[in-house]
Every structure is written in C-alpha cells, then in structure tokens.
C-alpha cells in the first residue's frame, strides 16, 4: 500500500475521532466537569486495568464478527442489515449443539463442533436474503431487516416453549462445548468476560483478508461489488457470488454468538445480541470494510461502550453513545466509499419497491 492510499484509508477515521473528541469536550463542559479528568477516567476504566481491558476485548470480539459480516457482504455490493438475527441464530445453534453433546466429550472436539454449528446456522439465515437477491432481485436491505424480526421471534418462541428453565427465558446450562475464559490462562483477567472466542474472531479476520485479497473467489466477489455487469461479462457467475457472500456473511455473524453463549454465560438467553449486529455496521464503515480496519474499529467502539460505564458516576453513560454516533456520522459524510455504499442500499430498496408496485399494478 502506497503512502497516499494509507493516508486515504487512515485519515478519515482519525478526523472523525477528533471531531467526536471535540464534541465530547463540549458535552463534558456542559455538565460542569473537566474534559481532561473525564477522559482520564474513561482510559483508566478501560485500558488502565486488567478487568477493563478484558471487558473491552470481550465486547470487541462480537463487534469484530458482526463487522466482518457486514464488510464481506459490502465488498460484494450488498448491504447486510441482518447480522442481529444471524448473530442470535448462531448463538442458538451453538447452544443446541452443546446441549445435545455428551458432557464427557473432550473440549477439543466439542468446541469446534459448536463453532461449526454456529457458523452453519448463521450462514443458513444469511443465505436466505442472498438467494432471494440472486433469484428474484429482492432488496437484501428489506429482506434482512424483516428476517431479523422473524428469526428473533422464532428463537424466542422455541426457547420459551421448548427449552427454557422454569420462570426464565434462557436454556439450561450447557455442559459441553463451553469456550474457556482467558482468565483460565491469564489470572490478571479474572472477573472479566473475555474468553478464547477472541482468538477465533481474530483468525476469522485473517481468513477474511486472505479470502478477499488472495483468492480467485474473493477477487470475483470484489469485482461483483465494484461493477457486476463487467464481472458478469468477464465470466463471473454473479448470482452465485451474491448467494455465497451473504452465506459467508451470516456465518461470520453467527460465530459472534459463541462469544456470549459459550464463552460468557454458558447458556442461550433471549435478547443477548443487544444491538451488536447493528453496531457491526458502524464498525465495518469506520474500518473501511477491511478486516484489519475492522479489528481496530471494534476496539474503538468497545472502548467507548465500556468507557461509558467507567464515567457514569461523573457524566451520563449516554455521552459515549453520542460520541459513537458522531464518529459514524463523520465517517459517513467524509468517506466516498461509505457514501457510495449507502446510496447503493437506498437504490436497492427503491428498485425493490418499484418492482413490487409494478407487479401489483400488473395483477390488477
């Protein structure tokens, strides 16, 4: 990467963070507090102690997976808004697999089986909008948004009707396939939720980079995202690429469900996704849809999330939510690729609605 391209990739997020910091200073002053003291408290509560670092890494793990999920689809010209449902479906698949496996099964076998199950179920959910887009030209934006409601409602019904413990909305404790905490190997992280799922998330980022930039299939995916007509003229089977990219996107989001279900709680619980699927969109946009940028962006947003808890005694926790929104808006207005992706998503929705109106007019 040349120096110019490196500056083009790094400068917009850095400027966005600078603008967010200025806005944060103004908000802190409006509460009668010292910006320097509040920022110092935020840093101390996140990167200033082992527990804070562990919590940041835990939150960054899920955001890395959902960010990669959005970015992979984005590279193919698709706007995947369904990571929330895919994340929950992956966590549910891992939980069911862990419940079905015998407790005596060694972790070296049980954990990979649960990981594969999470990615398979998440990938299956992601493949649905991919197939509808490839076969009928349906807008993946609309389909993934609607599919979130369907998937979450279906999973909640299954848990509440079939798998829940009495007077709870969670499954029984999972005996097999639980991912060890980092504290088991590094005592300094004792008490934090970070677990070895972070290793799988980093590995997923490395594999995604290799796939996108070092394989023929990844080249075809990026070509479809840049110019589908030219890619098709060059022999690329565009419908297959669209389906594959959405399936892989769902699989990456599903992997993130393991972090909570098997790495933290040890059971599936309703509502565990907690907006991480949607925040993954912001992670991908700030990370410029590049796997390594997503790792950095996930750490940034995880720091803000954990930092909100650290400064809550001095200023409202919602301060960090405002800073998160400021970073997103700054990047969205300053980065041409992000503007192009948002315009493409809007065009996809408009085209889908137009086709629907035309079909209704023809039927009448």
From TrEMBL:
Annotated localization: Cell membrane
GO MF, one example: transmembrane transporter activity
Source superkingdom: Bacteria
InterPro entries registered for this protein in UniProt: ABC_transp_permease
Record membrane topology: Multi-pass membrane protein
Keyword terms of this UniProt record: Cell membrane, Membrane, Transmembrane, Transmembrane helix
Main location: membrane
Protein name: Transporter
Organism: Gemmatimonas phototrophica
């Amino acid at each position: 990467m040349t120096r110019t391209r490196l500056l083009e990739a790094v400068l917009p997020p850095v400027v966005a963070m600078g603008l967010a910091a200025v806005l944060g200073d103004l908000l802190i002053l409006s509460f009668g507090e010292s910006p320097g003291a509040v920022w110092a408290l935020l840093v101390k509560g996140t990167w200033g102690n082992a527990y804070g670092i562990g919590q940041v890494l835990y939150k960054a793990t899920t955001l890395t997976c959902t960010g990669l999920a959005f970015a992979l689809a984005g590279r193919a010209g698709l706007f995947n808004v369904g990571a929330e449902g895919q994340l929950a479906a992956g966590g549910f698949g891992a939980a069911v697999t862990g419940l079905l496996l015998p407790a005596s099964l060694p972790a070296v076998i049980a954990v990979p089986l649960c990981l594969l199950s999470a990615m398979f179920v998440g990938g299956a959910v992601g493949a649905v909008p991919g197939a509808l887009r490839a076969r009928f030209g349906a807008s993946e934006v609309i389909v993934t948004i609607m599919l979130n409601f369907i998937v979450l409602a279906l999973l909640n019904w299954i848990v509440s009707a079939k798998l829940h413990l009495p007077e709870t909305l969670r499954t029984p404790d999972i005996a097999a396939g639980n991912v060890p905490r980092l504290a088991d190997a590094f005592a300094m992280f004792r008490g934090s939720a970070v677990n070895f799922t972070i290793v799988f998330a980093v590995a997923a980022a490395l594999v995604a980079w290799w796939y996108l930039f070092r394989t023929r299939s990844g080249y075809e995916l990026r070509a479809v995202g840049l110019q589908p007509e030219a890619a098709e003229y060059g022999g690329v089977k565009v419908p297959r690429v669209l389906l594959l990219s959405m399936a892989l996107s769902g699989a990456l989001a599903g992997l993130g469900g393991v972090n909570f279900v098997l790495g933290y709680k040890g059971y599936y619980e309703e509502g565990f996704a907690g907006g991480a699927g949607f925040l993954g969109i912001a992670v991908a946009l700030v990370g410029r849809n590049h796997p390594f940028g997503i790792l950095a962006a996930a750490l940034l947003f995880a720091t803000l999330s954990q930092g909100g808890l650290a400064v809550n005694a001095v200023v409202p926790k919602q301060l960090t939510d405002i800073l998160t929104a400021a970073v997103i808006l700054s990047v969205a207005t300053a980065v041409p690729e992000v503007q192009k992706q948002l315009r493409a998503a809007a065009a996809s929705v408009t085209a889908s609605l137009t086709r629907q109106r035309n079909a209704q007019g023809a039927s009448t």
